Amino acid sequence: MAEPQSLWSEPKPAALQTHRPTAMLNVALTGNVASGKSTVAQWFARCGATVIDSDALVVEAQQPGSDTLAALAHQFGESIISPDGTLDRATLRRLVFFDQKARARLNAIVHPVVKARREALIAEARRRGDQILISDIPLLFEVLDPTSFDMVVLVESPNSIRRKRLLDRGLNREEAEQLMASQIPSEQKRSLADIVIENHGSLRDLEDAAMEAWRVISARAET
After folding, report:
1. Residues near 15 by beta carbon (within 8 Å), at least 6 away in sequence
2. How far, in Å, are 14, 139, 182, 188 from residue 185 at the CA level?
3. 17: pLDDT strictly greater than 80
4. Burial group, residue 59, by CB count within 10 angstroms (0-12, 13-18, 19+)
5. Do the beta carbons of residue 1 and residue 38 sit within 8 Å?
6. Which ranges of the chain would DSSP assign to H, the alpha helix?
7. What angle in degrees, to the nearest 10, is found between the helix axes of 89-96 and 100-128?
8. Region 127-151: what's the mean pLDDT?
9. Do residues 180 and 32 touch, judged by C-beta distance below 8 A?
10. What sign does the dihedral 165-170-174-178 (CA atoms) show?
11. Whole-structure pTM over 0.70, yes or no?
12. CB 35, CB 71: distance < 8 Å
């Protein structure tokens, strides 16, 4: 499913909002790979939330000339840099995909930069007086503290459906299984989430579940 294109989506203009509470509701949206999380994030943005896309923050951090890209090249070699100076993501992925220690080194470089950028965007949203902020964070439970957010929304989809989606994206079966295994099983995350959106039916079913979740989030933001 398509990822949101911008680092974040702006909220609706203040003139369209009937109430602006003094405190911003800071919500984490998460879900294991191919769960449908990014589609839910797009719907929340259309409902008026400010959405910060962690994947877009990663791309921003790895731009040519950045300290992050230089650190990656130092760690993994110049072969990960394309002739035009951009990150060769396919080469980097091959180097770390089946190497847990290499992935840990990659995460140690990228995650602190992304976290700092996210925190800066959250602070900016608070200063603006935004009502609801959604942080789309794939590895929330793996690399962050979910209790630092006011609410956690988990999008969950059966392994069989997620596996098929990954295969449809061009991964082979071994790659799909490795990617799924690299994340904490969704079943272990359910009890730590405030809202669980189950994605095991049609796109319309997912939208209905997302809109019900949005009603709960909106009600919480008004309290």
Report:
1. none
2. 40, 11, 9, 6
3. no
4. middle
5. yes
6. 37-47, 54-61, 67-76, 89-96, 100-128, 140-143, 159-168, 173-181, 186-189, 203-221
7. 120
8. 96
9. yes
10. negative
11. yes
12. no
